[in-house]
Amino acid sequence: MTSPALAATIDLDAIAHNVGVVRDAARADVLAVVKADAYGHGVLPVARTALAAGAAELGVAHVDEAVALRAGGISAHITAWLHTPATDFGAAIAHDIDIAVSSSRQLAAVVAAAAARSTTATVTVKVDTGLNRSGIAVDEWADFAESLAKAKADGAVSVRAIMCHLARGDEPDHPLNSEQAHRLDVAADDLRRLGAGPEVMHIANSPAALTRPDLARDLVRPGIALYGRTPVPERGDFGLIPAMTLTAQVSLVKKLSAGEGVSYGHTWIAPTDTTIAILPAGYADGVPRLLSGKFAVRINGRSFPGVGRICMDQMVVDLGPDGGGVAEGDRAELFGTGRDGGPTAKDWADTIGTIDYEIVSGIGRRAIREYVGGARG
Ligand SMILES: *Cc1c(COP(=O)(O)O)cnc(C)c1O
User: Where's the active site on this chain (predicted)?
Assistant: First the structure.
């Protein structure tokens, strides 16, 4: 393996393992959510690995993401659920993408795109059962259901699935979760009565898939759990294995005298004579600048604190007076599995008041994705 300045090493065996964890917990098939370049892990290797590990199908936000999966040779069922008036439904239909529609307007656009190709589009009905984000609004439902039944009768669409997304899935016992599931069951009944019943139903995101098997219908729709990060830490880690380890190669080691300040604004002043190391990772790479002075890295099994401001391309760590035995070219672990006591993406998230979803999906393209284990190619 090469030694890139900055590397995000993705453990595909961990992803395969995590697919099994979710499937067993939910006792349902897995629709693996691989949007946003598989939460920053690299969409094609992750998609192939998840499918090889038994995931039944895939889901993404944009049609373009789905088409990219097809271009990468993925033939599994793919659902795309976030569209704008400019979305190319013709391309979705041509690539056999299941289009999740969130309004009568989107359905009409899909019907027109199917007519233009003299074919039938596959759709999923995305119902807004309480998240108040995407999905068909309550006051639009009756009209939508009739339009859908007509489009189905006309052969313009086939209705593959009905879905909704939970507002409080990470609060497993919140009554809204069951209420949303009930609303979706009612909506599915409405469609069945109109002769446009869905073949499958899915509700659960990662936290619900792991904690509420009663909400799993035919499929569950996990994202973050596949990447090995528990969405409900207070309930444990479920045996999930974090798949991404971020490392940087030490670019420079140098001495610093007591009283010298480090990086922009000299926010950290060396209290004693010391040694610092420069790492080629910064906020342009997705290391939050807000972490400045509030994180540690592991080099050769030892922990060293980050000091001074995180810059666009680089950061500084304090190796201590004896230099910690660190040499230029050694690799520093910025975050990883945490299993050896090292830092995790969750540590970063907790420190700056966000969630690890944002940390891993925000790791930039300069971090070379390297894959270990799993189904590559
Ligand atoms: C992102 C997303 C998911 C996955 O959510 P996780 O919390 O990462 O499991 C599921 N469904 C929809 C509609 C999504 O947008």
Answer: 35, 264
What is the radius of gyration, based on Cα positions, of the chain? Answer: 24
Q: Distance between CA 62 and CA 45 in Å, rounded? A: 19
Atom number of ligand 1 nearest to Cα 169: 7
User: Burial of 336 by CB count in 10 Å (0-12 exposed, 13-18 middle, 19+ buried)?
Assistant: buried
User: Which residue's CA is the closest to the ligand 1 atom numbered 12?
Assistant: 165
Residue 165 in contact with ligand 1 by CB distance below 6 A: yes
Identify whether 283 is a catalytic site residue. no
User: pLDDT tens for residues 195-224?
Assistant: 999 999 999 999 999 999 999 999 999 999
In the chain, domain spans: 12-227, 244-372
The size of the chain, in residues, is 377
pTM of full prediction above 0.85: yes
Nearest CA among 119, 207, 199, 194 for reference residue 165: 207
Strand partners, 159: 123
Q: Ligand 1 pocket, 202 CB below 6 A?
A: no
Bind-site residues for substrate = 133, 312
Cβ of 245 closer than 6 Å to ligand 1, yes or no, is no
Q: Which residue is closest in CA terms to ligand 1's atom 4?
A: 223
Protein fold of 244-372? Lyase, Ornithine Decarboxylase; Chain A, domain 1 (2.40.37)
264 is catalytic: yes
Q: What share of the chain is helix, strand, coil (3-state, %, to 5)?
A: 35, 25, 40
- Residue-wise pLDDT tens digits, 289-332: 999 999 999 999 999 999 999 999 999 999 999 999 999 999 99
| Same fold yes or no, 12-227 and 244-372 | no
